[in-house]
Structure formats: structure tokens, C-alpha cells
Amino acid sequence: MTTRDQMLASIKANQPSLLPLPEQFTFVSMFPDLTKQFIDILTFVGGTAVIVPDYAAIESHLREQYPDLTNIATTCPELANLADVRLDVADPHDLAGLNVAIIEGPLAVSENAAIWVDERQLPQRVVPMITQYLVIIIRQSTIVPNMHDAYRQLQVDATGFGTFICGPSKTADIEQSLVIGAHGARSLIVYILP
Amino acid sequence: MNQLTLNHADAAIEFNKNEAKVDWHDETLWFVRTKRDRAVAQVPEWEQLREAASQIKNHVLSNMHDLLVQFEENAIGNGIKIHWAADAAEHNAIIHRLIQEAGATQLVKSKSMLTEECHLNDYLKEKGIEVIDSDLGERIVQMRGEPPSHIVLPAIHLTKAEVGETFHKHLGTDKGATDPQYLTEAARQHLRETFLTRKVALTGVNFAIAETGGFVVCTNEGNADMGVHLADVHIAAMGFEKVIPRAEHLGVFLRLLARSATGQPITTFSSHFHRPRSGQEMHIVIVDNGRSRQLGRPDFRNSLKCIRCAACLNTCPVYRRSGGFSYHSAIAGPIGSILAPNLDMKENADLPFASTLCGSCSNVCPVKIDIHEQLYKWRQVLMQEGYGPGSKTVAMKAMATVLESPRLYRMAGKVGRGVLRFAPVTVENRLNPWYNQREMPAPPTESFRDWYINHKKS
After folding, report:
1. Residue B82's closest CA among B73, A1, B112?
2. Tens of pLDDT along A132-173?
3. What is the pLDDT of residue B2?
4. CA atoms of B456 and B458, how far apart (whole Å)
5. Which pTM value belongs to this model?
6. Chain B contact set for A150 (CB, 8 A)
7. What is the largest CA-CA distance in chain B?
8. Which of A44, A173, A177 to mutate to test the interface with B (most CBs of B within 10 A)?
9. Does residue A42 sit in helix, strand or coil?
10. Candidates A96, A114, A156; nearest CB to B266
């Protein structure tokens, strides 16, 4: 017998008799203002939220934020003027020098400020982690109340990789002092379009 | 690790010699617990979520065989290679083989308590493979040659001065530097180089989804993602109990996990892997290592529901004051104390006694494991199997004899009162553990029985 068969046989022999899945495992979250809740939580986790009317406002805000930076890339055609490097490289290591990545998030969650991105938004999976500064653009209409709503809308295996991103990377491994910017992005700006 | 040879109580005495540090450790972990409480208070349906999580996991335990078969089939369909490991040795050998097949001599690894349980790092070191742990806390303890002392906060036993000293020695940071921002930046630079040059990356698995054949890895630092997205080979190691039926169940678990662990609404990255990226290999090693045995123990199988949030460690009055190393096991604290005796009953017989049975662990557990009841039950099993601490066995037997006989009981009471009154030094000395940090009570002049008989007469 292979290890697999031995393990499975032992599991089958030892597992208790079948118990049903719970009838209720999704819940409704009632927030008076989904966008406000999203912004409050994003601020709490060290991110910055900016409500903007259009892409032109994003462009001018970003020019103020990163006036002297090069190595900026985006997947948004509307912001192509800001970019001087590309994200759709053949080898992800070529992104090592990336300073700012501007990507779109198709779904955001109000309760925890998490934003879903998958390979339809990411030319390379490593983009949101390898960049020094991350910018995600979401639409107000795509903010759902909680994670149950998010999974109801998502097909997690639509692409080979997808992730919920909540704020900039962080650690508190040295004496529980919060440090923003561990291995992933050092900051996260989320622009909220109507 | 010299702590390894000490039992929990003796190691706790060592830990308590530095009173200021123990106080800091205690207060810091309690602070994490209060952050958890604040996060929980923001979710009105928290108790229903816990119940749902508990029932999903109960179902998983009862349907483990079929879920694993389904998971394997779907993962293979996704282009992921599946390996099965009956024990730690097989797990380590598979990972070594995969590294060799990739033609690599180095491995970058994000947090995986399973690889700690299997002592993978030591094994690979012997085989000439260099392993670098990429979680900051794990990297710190790795540089110091220590295991993690906490499953979520691996370096919680260290002060920033100690981390500064370690980094000065290994990363060349300024001597005496203790600023966490500066030290974290140094680690960031050092590990970035590592991420960019490693061909094989290993991660743990938080949840494996049977329905879709994918898995989820949660980190705050982004280290798991940095490692695997830049490597040619991604190896994910999982205990078989990590499987859940469907992706929609993640809604329950991701709402519970980070809130229970650190009081965050969710981890910074909750990454869902379903297929290797083009040109990459993806492997999953599914490990038993005693889990199927635990599954067969009705009193203890619930321990396999654990999602490794560490809420039970943070709340535990014993863990907070004895430190992770006193548990001499990969997973410390209350949950570790009910998992470890399954791995080695004799070696870990002291751990179920490292508890006041106050029940706080069970109250905060997001999947409703009856931790303190299992601690109590393990004590019965260990005493029956003859693994109880020697002093307790003798004392309990003596006590049973005395309590069984009214005559002996009365005599013992008389002797005890006499000794306390006329020769207090026989109990008020360092050989009596009860006298450590305690005053002995003033002896009553008569027993209750004598008092009752006297008063009844009058």
C-alpha cells in the first residue's frame, strides 16, 4: 500500500460518523455607510483612502504624492501618462526596482477594508508585494458589506491566483511595535471612484 | 536548547527569574488579548460565527477521507502535484527530494508550524540545504538558534535590545540600535535579496479547499507571497486537517482568524493559490504525523479543529507567565498541551498539567475547541498510563489512603495542627513547594469535628 492509501485508510477507520454542515454559515452585516466603514478600517490598518471623482483627480493626486519618483507602472490605460515602466514582464524578477504599482481592485469589503485582486488585475502575481508603494483603484459600487458577500460574488479559482489585500504590509515582531512596510508595500493608497 | 531538558514547571521557574521581563511578557500578551476583544466586539454575530466554524470543522473531521480525496483530485486537475507523508521523516524526505530535483541548495520559507513540528530546518541543514525563514519573527529566532516561542508571534520572548544585538551580529546593524523601524528595515533589505535569489519557496497552508483544489495562505508581512511568486518551485506543507469543504466557508474562517489572533480585521494578505504560474511548479505535501491517531480519540479529536490563531496562548495565565519555551514543543500554550501528548505521551506528560483549568482558552477559541476539558482528560489518561509526575502519584496515593479512613483522617489532622503550631520549620522551608511565595495558614486549635461535638453537648 502506498503512503497515500495507508493514510486515507487510517483516516477512514478513525473518523467519527458523519456530521452535517451547519445550516447557517453566512451572516448579514448592516453598516449605515459602506464606504465610510471601508475608509475607517483602511485608516485603522495603516492605509490611506481618497474619494475621487475621476481618473484625472487620481493622476494629479499621485503627481503630488510621488513628485520625483521613477519606476512607476500601471495597468490602467487612463493613467498611462504616469508610468515609465511596464508590469507585464516575462520574468517577475524584472520588477525588483518597481517603486509604484497602480492597479485596479474589482471587489472591496467594507467590514475589513480588504480588496480582492487576481490575475486579471495582476500581470505578475508578485506586483502588490514587490512594489515599494501600492495604489489600488476601486469603485464605490463594488464595495460589499462583509466576507460572506465577497465569496458569494467571487469565483476564487477563476484564475490561478487571487488575494485579499488589507492595508500596507506590516509586522509587530519586534516587541509588538507596529512597523509599516515589512516585505510587501510600504504604503497603500486606495482611490475610490464613484 | 537547554530548556528542552526541563519539564514545564522547572522551565517556568527559570523564566520567572527575570521578573521585569516576565511582567512585560504577561502584559504584552494580555494587550494582544484586549485587541482581540475590541475586534470581536465589532462583530455582533461573533458567537454565531464561532458556532458555524465549529460545526464546519466537526463536519470536516467526520468527512475527512472524502474531502481529502476530493481535494487531491481537484488540485491535480489544477496542475498541482500532491505528496502524502505519514510522518515527519517522510515529510522532510519529500521536501529534500523536491529541492534536489529543482537543482537547488537553498530554500526560503514562510511561517509553517508543521515544518517546526517536523524539525525540517535541522534535517535540511544536515543535508547541506540552507534554509532562510522569511517571517521577521522567525528570522530573528532562527539567527539566534532558537525555535519560535509563540505560533503567531515567534519572537515575543525577546526585547528590542536583544533583537538589536542579534541583528548587529548577523546583519551588521549599528551596535546598540533598538529602534524597531530601523531593525525591520535592515531585515527587509536582507530578506529582499533572499527572495530575489531563491529558486524554491516553502509555505504553510491555512485552509485547503476541497471543492476547488486550491489553498489559502495568510500573512501580514507579504513574505509568503514574495517567496513563492519569485521562485520556480512552490512547496506548500499542510496537516491533513486543514481541508475545508467549499470556498464560501472561507468567509467564516477569515472573519475569525485575524480578529482572534491579533485583533486585526483580516491579515494584510489572504492569498488563494489554485494553479502554478506559467513555468512554475506547485507541490502540496499532505502530512499525517499522528493526526489520524488523534482523529481516532473521541475525547481529543476536537484539537484537530484548530486554525492556529493563538488566542488561547494570549489569554492563558500560565503561558503568559511561563513563556513559550517552557512547553518544549513546537506548539506552546493550551492548544499545544493537548496536541503534544498525542505525538509523545511520555515526553509531554507534564504539559496538560501546565494549566489552571480556568477555561479562558475554551472561551476565546474561534472554533470552540473544549481545550480546558481536554487538558483535564489528558491528565486522567496520563495518570492511568503511568506517565504522571512521580511526586503527584505518591502524594495522591497517600491522600487517597488518608481520605478513605476516618480514623487516619482525624489523626492526620491532629498531627498537622500540632506540627504547624509547635514545629513550623518542618513545613516553612524551601522543600515545601506550598511555602514558596505563600504564608502557611495559622493552625486552628481544634478540628471542625471536635468543635461540632463540643458545641452539640452544650
Report:
1. B73
2. 999 999 999 999 999 999 999 999 999 999 999 999 999 999
3. 40
4. 6
5. 0.94
6. 251
7. 96
8. A173
9. helix
10. A114
Q: Does A51 touch chain B (CB under 8 A)?
A: no
Q: Is the dihedral of CA B132, B133, B135, B140 positive or negative?
A: negative
Nearest chain A Cα to B287, which residue? A7
Beta-bridge partner residues of A100: A72, A133
Distance from CA of A150 to the nearest CA of B (A): 8
Is residue B1's pLDDT more than 50?
no
pLDDT digits (tens, 9 = 90+) for A72-112: 999 999 999 999 999 999 999 999 999 999 999 999 999 99
Cα atoms in the 13 Å half-sphere on the side-chain side of B260: 27
Q: How many other CB atoms sit within 10 Å of the CB of residue A159?
A: 18
| CB contact residues (below 8 A), chain B span 154-193, against chain A | 154-156, 158-160, 163, 180-181, 183-185, 188, 191-192
Task: Give the separation between CA A168 and CA A128, rounded to whole angstroms.
Answer: 10
In this prediction the ipTM stands at 0.98
- Where helices occur in B349-405 by DSSP H, the ranges are 360-364, 371-384, 390-404
Q: Which residue of A has its CA nearest to B44?
A: A29
Chain B residue with CA closest to A15: the answer is B62
Dist. CA B154–CA B147, nearest whole Å: 8
| Pick from B63, B212, B221: CB nearest A171 | B221
Cell of A128: 502588490
Measure the CA–CA gap between B401 and B396, rounded to whole angstroms. 9
**Cβ neighbour number for residue B182 with a 10 Å cutoff:** 15
Residue count (chain A): 194
Identify whether the C-beta of residue B49 lies closer than 8 Å to the C-beta of residue B256.
yes
pLDDT of residue B442: 83
Q: For residue B33, give the nearest of B327, B267, B364 by alpha carbon.
A: B364
Output DSSP code: residue A140: G
| The pLDDT value given to residue B413 | 87
Task: Give how far A77 is from chain B: nearest CA, Å.
Answer: 25
- The set of cell numbers assigned to B237 is 506543507
Rg, Å, chain B Cα set: 25
Confidence band of B300 (pLDDT split at 50, 70, 90): very high
